[in-house]
Structure formats: structure tokens, C-alpha cells
Amino acid sequence: IIQQLTNGGNINCIYAGNSYTLDMKIYNNKIQNISTTSGIINGIYSAANATGAIVNIYNDTITDLNSAGSVYGIQIYSGITTNVYNNLLYDLNSSGTAGTVYGIYANGGTTNNIYNNFISELYAPSSSGTNQLQGISLYGGTTDNVYYNTIYLDGASSGTDFGTSGIYASTTPTTIKLQNNIVVNNSTPAGTGFTVALRRASTSLTQYDNSSNNNLFYAGTPGASNLIYHDGTTPYQTLSDFQALVAPRESASITDMPPFINTSTAPYDLHIKTDVATGVESGGRVISGINTDYNGDLRFGATGYTGTGTAPDIGADEFEGIPSYTCTTPDPGNTVASSNPACYGETINLSL
């Protein structure tokens, strides 16, 4: 446990990496109650750059980081393969007028695998800028694989302009794959700022891998300032407009406010209620090699899975829930009878 540290400059709570590091594991740490009156804070800063280096950052809890500058829960600065998974990041705060808060920040590296993480309660209440809260920021790295994460933002600011992003991607990465993520941004925009679920810095779709799909994107009620997607040039308010732009990507993605257990009282609990129908249930796709969720529960498709799902659940939580669709035979009463099952996502023509 690293806690109760106050400083007047930059703070790296855990700094890991050099040219000699080949295999590093950073796990089961709790970092909390860290503050600085200036500079930046990194909860975990990974900078391994040896040839063939593999860094695993997992099962860590990072909370209550406070700075007048920018705050990074986990920063991947460099590395060959960096795996960031099963981490809980919340209550990260910047009190400055220009500070930015990042849950997970991929600044460099070759292959970054980011999965099964819970990210919430990022705040910059005085900051002014177009992208001041970023749940996951894909600023660098050659290949960024982002799978099964749950992100919930609900920040606001007194700054003149205030914008936020559930996931942000710059033009630097060569390939970005987004699969099975819950990305909810309920932040309040101000001035020229936007509340965006997914924001990219380019209109080009070259780096946006065609396999990106089965995500939940939500940014509140669609409107001029509440966007599913922004490509740096054009805002897209609705999921259907976004899907038409990026097809064949995101064809099975959905938009909705998931039934989280708690997003009203800190600390939040982003596990999903099991008694409310939701498209998150069985809305994902099997990803080879990721067989468990944040809690270690087996996912659909893994050897030994005995749950009731028909596919993996979206987000960091695999649960036994109620799907928001059925594949049962329609019962039209005495008017028309049909023995053909109607399934979610299927186009059906009815005539009488």
C-alpha cells in the first residue's frame, strides 16, 4: 500500500523500467491518497524498453490522486509488450485550470493490451479545454488492443470550455482494436467542449481496425454537445450515423445506459445489475486468451463455463443477467401465426 504522500512536484508512485528489464510484474498494489501542489502524478509509470521486454500491470487499485496539474492513473510510456488488466482506477482529480485526468494513458510501446479494467470518477472541476477527462487515452503505441473495459465519466467544470472523452485515440498508433468495451460518458460539457464516448484525432479510418465491434457507446441524450463519436472534424450524435461512417466496424455495437449497481454514491460500483434487462448481457464476442473477467469469473467460451449466456458480456464484468432481446417464436394471437423465430438484429418483413 502506497498512501498519504504529499509533495510539491512530480510524483511517480511506482516507476518501473529501464533498458535491462525483460520481464516485470506490477500487481496487487493499492495506491491512494497521493497529492501534489504542482506537477503531475502517475499512479504507475511503466517505461521498460529492453528488447523483448514484457510488462504485466494487474490487480492494482489506484484511487484518491490529486494534483493541480495532470493526473495519470496508469501510464505506459514505452515497452515491447505491456499488459494492463484487472485494475480498478477511480477518484483521480486535477484542481488546476488546465489539468487533464487520464485513467489509462498509452503514450508509447509496441503492443499494449488493455483489458478488464474499471475506470470512473475522473474529475477536473476547474479545468478549461476540449479534452480534459479521458478514460483511456491511446496517444501512442504501435498496436493498442482495448478489450472488455468499463468506463464511466460524469465530470463537470467551471472552466470556460470543457470537453471529455470516454476513449481517445491520436493519429500515432498504427492499429487500434476496440472490442467488448462499455464506454459511458455522462459528463457535462461547457462552452465549445463536447461530451464524447469515442473521440479520434483523424477522419482517416486506416488505423481503426475492422475487427472493432461489440462495444457499448453512450454519451447521454444525443445532441449538439453529446456525441457518440468525433473524428476531430465532424461530430456524430447517434450510433446509427457513427455505424454508417465506420462500417463494417461497430455493426454489433449498442448504445444505452447500462444498469450499473451504483453511480450515485462514491465509490462507484460499475458491476452490472443482474435483474434488469440489458444489451450488455451476451452482447460481446469471444476473444481468445481472455477467459476471465475482472473478478476472475469465467467468461462465455472459456473451458468450464457453466453460465446461461449465449456470448461473452460486454465490459469488465461477466455476470448472469437478463438479455434485452429474445429469440422465441412470435405469438401474434388469432391474427397471424408464425413458426419462425425473430432474433435481435434481424430484419423482418411482415405482410397480411
Topology:
Blueprint: E1 2-7, E2 11-16, E3 23-27, E4 30-36, E5 41-46, E6 54-58, E7 61-67, E8 71-76, E9 81-85, E10 88-94, E11 101-106, E12 111-115, E13 118-123, E14 129-138, E15 143-147, E16 150-153, E17 162-169, E18 175-179, E19 182-185, E20 195-200, E21 216-218, E22 226-230, E23 235-236, H1 239-246, E24 260-262, E25 269-272, E26 277-278, E27 322-323
Parallel strand pairs: 1-4, 2-5, 3-6, 4-7, 5-8, 6-9, 7-10, 8-11, 9-12, 10-13, 11-14, 12-15, 13-16, 14-17, 15-18, 16-19, 17-20, 19-21, 20-22, 26-27
Antiparallel strand pairs: 22-23, 24-25
Q: How much helical structure, as a percent, in the residues?
A: under 10%
- Overall pLDDT score: 93
Strand content is 35-45%
Distance between the termini: 68 Å
Number of strands: 27
- Gyration radius from CA atoms, angstroms: 21 Å
Tell me the overall shape: globular
Question: Major β-sheet, in short?
Answer: 9 strands, mixed
What's the tally of helices?
1
- Class computed from helices, strands and strand pairing: mainly beta
List the secondary-structure elements in sequence, H or E.
EEEEEEEEEEEEEEEEEEEEEEEHEEEE
What is the topology, as strand order, of the major beta sheet? 2-5-8-11-14-17-20-22-23
Quaternary assembly: single chain
List low-pLDDT spans. none
